[in-house]
Amino acid sequence: MKNLSEAKMRQYIAEGNKIKQFRNLPEERKEQIVEEVLSTEFLDLRCDWAFKYVLSDPELLLLLLNDFLPENITSIVSVSNEPKRLNSTEKTVLMDIVARTEDDREIVIEMQRFKKTDFKARMFYYGAAMVRSQLKRGRNYGKLKPVYVLCFMDFKLKHSKNQLLYKYQMMELENHEVYGDWLSIYLCELPRLQKVAMSEMNFVEGWMHIIRESCTFAGKPEGMNERFDRVVEAARMKTVPESEKMDYFKSMISDKERLEYGDDRYAEGKIEGAALEKQRITDILKSAGVSEDIISQL
């Protein structure tokens, strides 16, 4: 990052050194990673922190939900991302964003960059947790409101058909009669989006393109529908307060997000760092008089 001072660079590297994979990289590579993360024109919206940062604006979140969900939603109220637990032994559930509509329908919005074990079960559990947390003692089951789980994924699952948005509800197996609308799960798999001009994309495709490609934008994408102007502007790196850029950086390189390590963006740097370390050890052994045969075996 051209305007990043040496002192600021040291701060970012010090924070990155808390992550084992980052700490083991050569110093030069660490500086490159800091620059690569912070010098893009736009945030990488596949990153959990950036996704939540942009969609923390209720108007932008409302825009997204009305493009993906069947009902017309006129207003939303953001709520806690952790549902109440029945007891202390129950598994803690932390979600990216939870929204509640004007008629108390609840919506979980997730960004999943990497495929995790039992992913489908995880999304069902998130939705079930929101269904279960609705009723207080004495309330009738008829008071249950629909819950939606809308998940954006930077990976593919196995399906019988190729489509951009997979919608799930409970239904009768033979005649497909819907059991009820209390829980709906929507999976939006970003890699399935075909590369076409933005002017040819519908609203769902437009969102997918922006989320998947935001960090590659040099400016407003050509042909982009004006409804996305505020979304793109909210993702501009220069609009992020300096005090919050460290949170973005930590999220991008953390073990939890698993971003960049093993991913193609930094894979080359990781291999390069390993090669440099191998050569360094080889040079030390040679200077100590160790034969090349033994070095090769080592």
Could you tell me the strand content as a percent range? 5-15%
Please write the string of helix (H) and strand (E) elements. Answer: HHHHHEEEHEEEHHHHH
Radius of gyration: 23 Å
What is the overall silhouette? globular
* Residues in helix, %: 25-40%
End-to-end Cα distance? 39 Å
Number of individual domains: 2
Give the overall average pLDDT.
Answer: 86
Beta strand count: 6
* Count of helix runs: 11
Question: Reading side by side through the largest sheet, how are the strands ordered?
Answer: 1-2-3-4-6-5
Uncertain regions: pLDDT < 50 for 5+ in a row?
255-273
Largest sheet: 6 strands, mixed
Category by helix and strand content? alpha/beta
Written description of the protein model:
- The protein is of the alpha/beta class.
- It has two domains: 48-245, no CATH class; 267-298.
- 40% of the residues lie in helices and 11% in strands.
- The chain has helices spanning 6-16, 20-23, 27-38, 48-54, 58-68, 119-132, 203-213, 229-234, 242-253, 264-287, 292-297, and strands at residues 76-79, 97-101, 106-112, 147-153, 165-168, 183-189.
- Strands 1-2-3-4-6-5 form a six-stranded mixed sheet, sandwiched between helices.
- Helix 6 links the parallel strand 3 and strand 4 (147-153).
- The longest helix is centred in the C-terminal third of the chain and has 24 residues, at 264-287.
- The radius of gyration is 23 Å and the shape is globular.
- The two termini are 39 Å apart.
- The model is unreliable at 255-273 (pLDDT under 50).
